[in-house]
Amino acid sequence: MPLARKRIFRPAAPPPTTIYVRPGYNRVLAEEFEALKIKRVGLVKDKIEAHSQGDLRENFGFKAAKDAIRAVDRKMTALDRFVARNTFIEVDPATWLTKPTGTLLLGHVTTIAKQDVATNRKHRFTFLVTTHGETASDTESGIECLPHNSPLAAVVLGLAPNAHTKVTLPAGEAILTVLSIRNPTQMELDRLLTAIRPPEIDDEGE
Questions:
Q1: Global pTM value
Q2: Strands (E), 119-163
C-alpha cells in the first residue's frame, strides 16, 4: 500500500524544548484537555441520536456530528503531543522586579534598535521578554510582550547593553542592537500580563 502523500511531505516534528510558563499554566492545559473530552462525549451522543433517524446518505446531522468529533480528536491529539514533546517550567513574574540586568534575560524590559542592512532604515522597539504565549501590548508605555521562545527573543537573549548582532529576517538582513535593559515595574506587569489561556496549536492532521 503506497504511503499517503500528506505523510511523505509532512514536516518533521519539532524537537523537545523547555518552555517557561507562568504559574497555573499546567493546570490550564489539563483543564483544556478535560473540556475537550467532555465536548467529545456530547458530540458522540449527538451522532448516535442522528444515526437513529434513518438514511445516513442525507443525514446532515450525522455528518456534522462525525466531522465535529474528528475536529475534537485532532485538537486532543495535538494538545497531547504538545505536552509530551515539551518540558514546562513555571516561573513567578514577581522575581522579574529585581533581576540582575547585566545581560538580557526572561522578565526584562529592553529597548532594541533595528537597522535594515539594505536600506539603512532604523526602527526602535521596547519589549517585555515574557513567558510562552504572551502577546499583549501596553499603549500607554509602548511596551510589547515578546515571548521568550520567539525567533527574535532567541537572537537577543543573553546579549549585554550596547551589544549588536546581524540577523536574517523575512524582509532581509538587519542589525539588532540592545540599547537598554531594565526590570519591569509592578504596574507594567499588571497591564501586560493577561489571563493564562490554553495554547493555539497547529493541527498536524492524521
A1: 0.78
A2: 122-130, 137-138, 143-147
